[in-house]
Amino acid sequence: MCDQTFVAITFGPCDSCGNPSPLMNIYIKSEAINYCSFCVEMMACRGLQKGESLATLKTESDTLKKKLEEERGKLNDVELHQVAEKIEVLNPLSVKTRRVMKGHTNKVLCMDWCSDKRRLVSSSQDGKVIVWDAFTLNKEHGLALPCTWVMACAYAPSGCAVACGGLDNKCSVIPLSLDKNENLAAKKKSVAMHTNYVSGCTFTNSDMQMLTSSGDGTCALWDVESGQLLQSFHGHTADVLSLDFAPSETGNTFVSGGCDKKANVWDMRSGQNIQSFESHESDINCVKYYPSGDAFASASDDATCRFYDLRADREVSVYKKDSLIFGASSVDFSMSGRLLFAGYNDYTINVWDVLKGTRASILFGHENRVSKVRVSPDGTALCSASWDNTLRIWA
Amino acid sequence: MTIRTVRPDHVQHIRPRMHCLKKLEAIVVEMQDPTSGVKGSEQKLNVTTIPHVITGKDIIAWIVNKMKTPTEEANVFGTMLVAYGYIYPLQNHRKLIMCNDNSLYRFQTPYFWPSQKWLAEDTDYAIYLAKRNIRKKGMLEPYEQAHYNHLHKWLNHKWDFIVMQATEQYRAGKERKKPDRVVFDCQERAYWILNRPPRHTHSAMDCGPERLVDPDEDQIISFDQYRRMNVFFQQAIMRSKVKSSVSLGALVKYITTYKTHDPFLAPCLPSNPWQTDIDAYWTLNMRRVDLPTKMRVERWSFSLFELLTDLRGRDDFKIFLKKEFSGENLAFWEAAEELKWGTASSMRTKAETIFKTFLAPGAPRWINIDGRTMGLTVKGLEHPHRYVLDAAQTHVFLLMKKDTFFRYLKSPVYKDIQKKALNPEPQNFSPAQLEQNAQNRSVGIHPIILWKQEEEEKAKAAAASAPVDVKAMMSKIDRKK
């Protein structure tokens, strides 16, 4: 089982107000209680009690932080590279460019694969969103959005719609059609509304719900049909740059990474921040779950990629090299989880051996920074989007 | 409507890159070391002799030696040095790349380094263009002319000042020695190519939109924020964790299990469509095939999650459950999934249907879950919420995972499909055949069509398995009579 959230009671009557709602499992004076998110907020915002002051709260915070580190350290009985010693070395990889997709007239910022493993959607700085059949290189649909810097785009699980958002502070869903001449922009529907740019969006397990991350420091879960905000997630203290939905049996968590150098894991039902990792030295540009859902990787402007184990609650590996000094913008795992593809701002893609921590290969070809890398749903190819206006398929 | 957010200047063009710029600068300083750095020489450019000129070849050789990387990677690193403006090319000055040959380069003066905190202002650019205009007697390059016209219009109120500055700088430049002037002109030109790149070229100074929050600013944390942090830390401390040996062992096990299924590590049969331009691999693994491939069937045995996520596998599992007359658990799980991921407006009706079908006493497909979970669920259904069935759904899933799934793997249904599963031969193509394949790439079926087919099939299946409404049946029989 991937996430532990299933064992806790997450829906029922709140211990404080009694209303049935999704519950956060918290501790007050070492006693386990279940509060709804509203009651937690009320508790946090009530005035300073007798004997409490800003200083006492700060010392309590520092003590707890140290205790958490201690608890994490107690279970640290082996390192990843030790476990990896018994694994055989990878065969040399021969990965070549199989397609170069030209069509955008400005930087390509984001792309996402369709579940049919051959189509993809890409968005660029000039507001254009293109749906391609990457196998035949056909451009199936093209839309022009009224805003620039479309930083987030996603393909719906059914393959019938795409979502995109960016500097317009919104994320919109556009249903696709079989008719190539249809004006898709007319059917565009605004779903997410943030107070700053939308940096990432993804559908959950169906076309009906969407998760977005924004420059205003929050993430949110939306109902696509009505545009209703189902849950918001507060905890980052700076812009949130990326998010990823967990591929787990229960489908209840997602991870987000932001400019505050933190990667947070959230419970989608209650809005609670359940785990947090702060070991990067600069902005986290991308976070991506390991295929089993028990771990995730992050890419940052400090030129390293890091690997975090969720069950042991700690960072287990750092992927870095002296010759790599430019920020990593995007990461994705291969299907088995053995390879980690990372796109960098020095125009290359480095392929890391996740277990051994060494670099397995380096892919050249782009003429400007690589903004996004994504492995196709069946693992047969890697697509990279770049600021040189092209996308490349590697296999 | 675009919401115009006033974007604060948090030195976005510098901040995320300061990390790498500092390291770059350290290397650039090393490269200029008189003894251990790159060897420069004097070169004649047009009529003047320019000092401290280096060749691309020498730079790359130095990088290879210093960083112990292969030539291609050193070339990339060299290109980044040029793209960020630490080194500029003398010939072909508009293309900011490093060439591994005798192309000539020079080190940029620290005054013009990108890590200097001041922005390349439009006013400065206007002064530069005006100066160039004077020197070239009106013959600016087309993109420069376009910029000039644009700035002339927008900075018209300052134009006298700009022209005055430009004239002053031009006169001051004339008083310098010729080689110094040429060198300075080259440096300034390189700086502006970097900050105002010509059309259809790239500059590393490009960066994304400004960030909202300045993380370098000292944060004043209020008492409610501390309270929230403390709540987080306490639950994080109490959260049960697993020993590293166990969790890392599980990760390694996952990799080993899926090793042969990863197309980057093992060949996929019959062939990887991206490599051979034949999409047989996708047609063989479509949603509704009569016979799946052996690899696909093997994948179903890895976990219940894999079996259920692959809808073809789920079908096979349903066949098994039908034989065992225990299909209600999976049906409940599917219905709960639909509730969880469905639209907000359909929740109430779905919750009622699920209650009537699976949970009510005497329901047609009653599921057997423990009393406590049943009690919580029924109570929660009074005010339906999308996560109201979570406890029951997890209970049912665990039941299936720990018991039914393993019985399925040992059952004749699974063994039968394993035997019948296809094992396609690996395809090998000659270069001529590959050329042909590339000309005839198949279009496949559009996902929208497949989705419509899926929905029709689902509706048919739901109608077939719906509990029989006895009253309706009776009235139909009566009418027939």
Structure description:
The complex is a heterodimer of chains A (395) and B (481). With 395 residues, chain A is mainly beta. Helix content of chain A is 9%, strand content 45%. Chain A has helices at residues 37-45, 54-74, 80-83; strands at residues 11-13, 20-28, 31-36, 97-102, 108-113, 119-124, 128-133, 138-144, 152-155, 161-165, 170-175, 189-193, 198-203, 209-214, 218-223, 229-234, 240-245, 253-258, 263-267, 273-277, 284-289, 295-300, 305-309, 314-319, 328-333, 339-344, 349-353, 359-363, 370-375, 382-386, 390-394. The longest helix of chain A has 21 residues, at 54-74. In chain A, 60% of the residues are buried. The model of chain A is unreliable at 1-7 (pLDDT under 50). Chain B has helices spanning 15-31, 56-67, 71-83, 122-135, 142-154, 159-174, 178-195, 223-238, 244-258, 273-276, 280-284, 294-300, 304-309, 311-324, 328-341, 347-359, 371-380, 390-410, 412-420, 431-439, 447-465, 470-480; strands at residues 41-45, 48-55, 87-89, 104-107. In chain B, helix 4 packs across helix 6, helix 15 runs antiparallel to helix 16 and helix 17 (371-380) crosses helix 18 (390-410). With 481 residues, chain B is mainly alpha-helical. Chain B contains 22 helices and four strands. In chain B, 57% of the residues lie in helices and 4% in strands. The two termini of chain B are 65 Å apart. A four-stranded antiparallel beta sheet of chain B has the order 1-2-4-3. Among the domains of chain B are: 16-116, Arc Repressor Mutant, subunit A (Orthogonal Bundle), CATH 1.10.10.10; 122-175, Methyltransferase, Methionine Synthase (B12-binding Domains), Chain A, domain 1, CATH 1.10.1240; 258-427, Regulator of G-protein Signalling 4, domain 2 (Orthogonal Bundle), CATH 1.10.167.10. The longest helix of chain B has 21 residues, at 390-410. At the A-B interface, strand 2, helix 1, helix 2 and strand 20 of A face helix 1, helix 3, helix 8, helix 9 and helix 10 of B. Chain A: This is Guanine nucleotide-binding subunit beta-5b-like. Chain A: It comes from Solea senegalensis.
